[in-house]
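Q: Structure tokens for this one, please.
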Amino acid sequence: MNEDDTNEQEQKGTADLLKQSVAPVGAELKRDLWPKMSRRFEEASSRRSWLSAMFSTTALSSVPWFDWALLAALIIGICVFPNTIPIWLYHF
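A: Here is the predicted structure, written as tokens:
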């Protein structure tokens, strides 16, 4: 057995392993997911608006304390130095 035969056998073995491990490309879903997602979007929109969701207690409590401190520093800085407002608007 020479080196070329060994390489071909290794390549065939590797190809067989890849074929076994990778799912077929033409696999179809057993069901359509869009109607379920559409229902979830409608339920979420009917429950509350995006504005109330943004300012809900769970959303506000998930913000770390240092973000609140940075916001407070920004507000205080704008109140003390109102001339910096154009600079802050430029950066945001």
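A few notes: Residues 3-21 form the longest helix (19 residues). The mean pLDDT is 80.
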